[in-house]
Amino acid sequence: MKPATTYPERRDDVRLLVVDPDGGAGGAMLHETRTPALPDFLAPGDLLVVNDAATLPASLRGHDDSGHDIEARLLAARCGGATFAAVLLGAGDWHARTEDRPPPPELPVGARLRFGALDADIAARDPRWPRLVELRFAATGDDLWDALYREGRPVQYAYLAHELPLWAVQTVYAARPWAFEMPSAGRPLSWQALLTLRRKGVRWAALTHAAGLSSTGDPAIDAALPLPERYDIPAATVRAVTETRARGGRVVAVGTTVVRALEGATATARDGVLRPGGGETDLIITPAFRPRIVDGILSGAHAAHESHFRLLAAFAGTAVIHAAAAHAERAGFLTHELGDSMLVLPGALARGDERARAGS
Amino acid sequence: MSKQLATGLEGQGVLVTGGSRGLGRALALAAARAGARVALVAREREPLARVAAEIRAAGGDAHAIVADVGQRDAVAAIAGQAAAAIGAIDVLVNNASTLGPVPLRLLLDTDCEDVERALAVNLVGPFRLTKAVAGPMVLRGRGTIVNITSDAATEAYERWGAYGASKAALEQLGRIWAAELAGTGVRVLNVDPGEMDTRMHADAMPDADRSLLADPVRVAARIVALLMGNDGDGQPRSGSRVAVSAAAATTS
User: Fold this and answer.
1) Which of B138, B142, B177 should be substituted to probe chain A, the one whose Cβ sees the most A Cβ atoms within 10 Å?
2) What are the per-10-residue average pLDDT scores of chain A (360 residues)?
3) Contact A230, A73 (CB under 8 A)
4) Which domain holds residue A92?
5) What domain range includes position B241?
6) How many CB atoms lie within 10 A of CB A110?
7) Which residues on A lie below 8 Å from B139 (Cβ)?
């Protein structure tokens, strides 16, 4: 599949492939429509869970003391506030694919970096991967946020036709500045769709998950992605999930990050019960993973060779997801951050009366 | 009356634009005194930092964000920095505004660029910022947006064309925001603070008798009382225009 190279004129009107592993009327498992029709495929009593993380300007361009060009892409915040995990890239800019970028110079712990008005030093290096470092900024608190928003740009993608401004990588409900790349599954959601869902009796809830980087330029790191990511699940969201499940409704996650937060939090709880609060998850969802909380996912369209694709199989089985990917490929769906959408949800294509029976 | 109504703004996040002087400064001070975590926005760093320092010195929680609300690219940064500093935003006060060049001019003498700038700061900026913070408010099911307006929005004062037209549009936008957000828990108020003894007023009307102008500190206290919901006859309806004088508030 080809990537979308620019944001569509209407972010909330992209193509949507609905995938129902149970099969709807006549057994059809695939249905092609557009994202404004999303509310048609959820039922009263279902719950949509979104990631309210706002996207940070996580890409900083600068140089080291010897004048080498360096780009730092922040990927996780550390406790204390002024230290971030970051991947360093060498010369060049986003027009080159990360894997084609020259590596950064070897920088020892203590090496100083300067990103415009923002100074930093290397507080630690990851023993496994030299370009993965802990970056400690000289500024703290409000001054750090001020400098970060002044000097930083959102992480860009080589397939883009033009640079993305910060406002273009936010969802319509973006709140807490936690995401290092856009939680892009939620990009096509509009308030029109969200309010329509509520009117028909679908609830929504939010959590915050610090989406990390999708690509680092180092194949060894890329193979280990996603790295552990921080999340925070409010009490109201846990309540909504618990009530929805108790009443036979379905929990639909908007994006991988929501799946990781909900399933990760549940998997690490000793008694397997979802509780409110913050944490960090290293859960990686594979086709063999059996979700305990999440019934379905709204996701970007992904080709069969992408890692996100494997995650979708956890919700519909590998065969169905392969059929969905083949359909999307044939139909010319666009992929990546600004591309088209896929809803993978058992029962999504059931007729209303069947759904009512199944739920009763 | 519920407990919450009596306890001020403890723990609430309040974002005020135009926070370095005049009504914005007074609002930031009053909100912080009522217990709010306050983020202030203005273009100039020094006066803004002074207000934030003043609030902190008095034991309040204040954070300065240097930005121009009239610039498209500034808004995502304002929302992000504010959320980083004060957490969830419960109240947005769209207070920043520009008169355009002073002395004020007849429309026939007004440059198109000055009208565009007035609209960018007084109308489009508040629209963008509201759009950025109202989404999370709707998700959480609560929040208040306050648009600071003026009687220049409703009266046809000579020489107030660019400013008056921008404020009239801001009020209409506020009414439509309120209609669209009905039932979400997010309310939108257009608040007319009346004539105050501020630098903006002096710029517009240098010959005014200052003894007849309201003290922005007293006006800010009335507006914060509105936000706390202990303003006597209960809460004004979302979408209404509230004329606040230093003495009392009247809703129309």
Assistant:
1) B138
2) 76 93 89 96 98 98 95 91 94 88 92 97 94 96 96 92 93 97 95 96 98 90 91 98 97 96 94 95 91 96 77 92 93 88 95 52
3) no
4) 59-151
5) 9-251
6) 9
7) 50, 52, 173, 175, 204, 206
